């Protein structure tokens, strides 16, 4: 099983969605949070009062129903930020006045080192965050995007921020799916080469009287690939099929 980093900051991380219009985005945001190990979701005046239980929301959450169950709906951004010591607002472009604009990757390690409880605040799909909500923030997060087009779907933005924050806190281990026993040993590779040598002679591709360096080159080709036992079986199966012809 992957290792789960243990950090006090993980329990002090909140995602706040302000004025969300589409139920699917709420569900997708919950899913984005859960896969990165976060569960504290707060909605501020969503379009639908019952959004957390709507069919589209639950469907898009896809296994993150527990995040929806624990989520809260509040009337104001200040209420959503209770208990938070550092607020990160998200905006597509920097503003003339307000908190400093930072990219997530260089900024997040600083927050972890300071031990802040952090809230990431996302605006509505159509209008983003109001100036007043941005002014409440300590930092304005700007996700680096291609010049000329910086439009991210709400749930996509939540996923990017959740991923970068998880990396700063300590990422999950990647589960190794290939076991050492699956790698082909040298004897198996040599057996496949010998089999192919026989076939190449039979089809006239290899002249045993003048083999040149064909087989050593094939040896080097196979060595570069670090073959598995299954791949050796496939190569020998092809050789047998050619011999039957």
From TrEMBL:
Reactions the enzyme catalyzes: uridine(32) in tRNA + S-adenosyl-L-methionine = 2'-O-methyluridine(32) in tRNA + S-adenosyl-L-homocysteine + H(+); cytidine(32) in tRNA + S-adenosyl-L-methionine = 2'-O-methylcytidine(32) in tRNA + S-adenosyl-L-homocysteine + H(+)
tRNA/rRNA methyltransferase SpoU type domain: residues covered: 14-163
Entry keyword DNA damage: no
One Gene Ontology molecular-function label: methyltransferase activity
Subcellular location: Cytoplasm
InterPro entries in the cross-refs: Alpha/beta_knot_MTases (IPR029028), RNA_MeTrfase_TrmJ/LasT (IPR004384), SpoU_MeTrfase (IPR001537), tRNA_m1G_MTases_N (IPR029026)
Annotated TM spans: none
Example GO BP: methylation
Superkingdom of the source species: Bacteria
Enzyme category, top tier: transferase
Keyword Methyltransferase included in the entry's annotation: yes
Protein EC: 2.1.1.200
Keywords: Cytoplasm, Methyltransferase, S-adenosyl-L-methionine, Transferase, tRNA processing
Function field: Catalyzes the formation of 2'O-methylated cytidine (Cm32) or 2'O-methylated uridine (Um32) at position 32 in tRNA.
Assembly notes: Homodimer.
Protein family (similarity comment): Belongs to the class IV-like SAM-binding methyltransferase superfamily. RNA methyltransferase TrmH family.
Protein name: tRNA (cytidine/uridine-2'-O-)-methyltransferase TrmJ
Classification lineage: Bacteria, Pseudomonadati, Pseudomonadota, Betaproteobacteria, Burkholderiales
